């Protein structure tokens, strides 16, 4: 009897120290993550190749250092062919079903002009609501797009909520790049 190939679930969170899990003895409650860590492989001594999000995520995908894949700062898009040769493309070629859910950040999402990539808020409208990949070696993707969070608001917000999403609504000199949906 042949053994089934292993499943892979990679969870990546920005600004999340590796020891901030209940399984590490910290005073935090992470029961679901702790259960997955006990039943799988946990990289407790891994290091981050870059303190910046986009280069670090490109390194996770490709297994390469920033100077090799070329993304050394946010705002530099990972070459599509390089991304497709990363672990997702390799696993897909070996017969795995691959999927990505959440914030990929392999490309600039907060660009001031459309980039032609699905992660760009201004280009995402070209992909349509039913687009789910492929992208960077993943056969299925459900991307979370972020709004322009690197810039202060023009006016002080009234009430902060955590249940707010932003949707691109158009282009042109008078277009509003986002509509607020509660």
Task: Write up what this structure looks like.
The chain is an alpha+beta fold and about 180 residues long. It is built from 5 helices and 4 strands. It has a domain at about 50-150. The chain is globular, with a radius of gyration of 18 Å.
Mean pLDDT over the full residue set: 79
| DSSP helix fraction | 10-25%
Largest sheet: 2 strands, parallel
Strand fraction equals 5-15%
Enumerate the strands of the largest sheet in spatial order, edge to edge or round the barrel: 1-2
Rg measurement, Å: 18 Å
Termini Cα gap: 52 Å
Tag the structure with descriptive keywords.
182 residues; alpha+beta; two-stranded parallel ribbon; two-stranded antiparallel ribbon; 5 helices; 4 strands; globular
Secondary-structure blueprint:
Layout: H1 31-39, H2 53-62, H3 66-69, H4 80-84, H5 87-93, E1 99-102, E2 140-143, E3 165-167, E4 179-181
Parallel strand pairs: 1-2
Antiparallel strand pairs: 3-4
The gist of it:
Helix content is 19%, strand content 8%. With 182 residues, the chain is an alpha+beta fold. The protein has a domain at 50-152.
């Amino acid at each position: 009897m042949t053994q089934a190939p292993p499943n892979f679930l990679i969870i990546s969170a920005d600004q999340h120290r590796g020891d901030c899990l209940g399984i590490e003895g910290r005073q935090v409650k992470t029961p679901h993550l702790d259960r997955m860590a006990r039943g799988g492989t946990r990289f407790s001594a891994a290091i981050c190749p870059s303190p910046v999000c986009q280069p670090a995520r490109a390194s996770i995908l490709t297994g390469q250092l920033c100077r090799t894949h070329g993304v050394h700062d946010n705002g530099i898009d990972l070459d599509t062919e390089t991304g497709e040769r990363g672990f997702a493309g390799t696993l897909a070629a070996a017969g795995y079903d691959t999927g990505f859910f959440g914030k990929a950040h392999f490309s600039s999402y907060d660009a001031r002009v459309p980039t032609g990539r699905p992660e760009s808020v201004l280009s995402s409208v070209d992909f349509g609501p039913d687009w789910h990949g492929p992208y960077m070696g993943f056969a299925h993707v459900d991307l979370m797009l972020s709004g322009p969070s690197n810039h202060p608001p023009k006016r002080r917000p009234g009430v902060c909520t955590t249940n707010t999403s932003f949707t691109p609504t158009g282009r042109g000199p008078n277009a509003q790049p986002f509509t607020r949906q509660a």
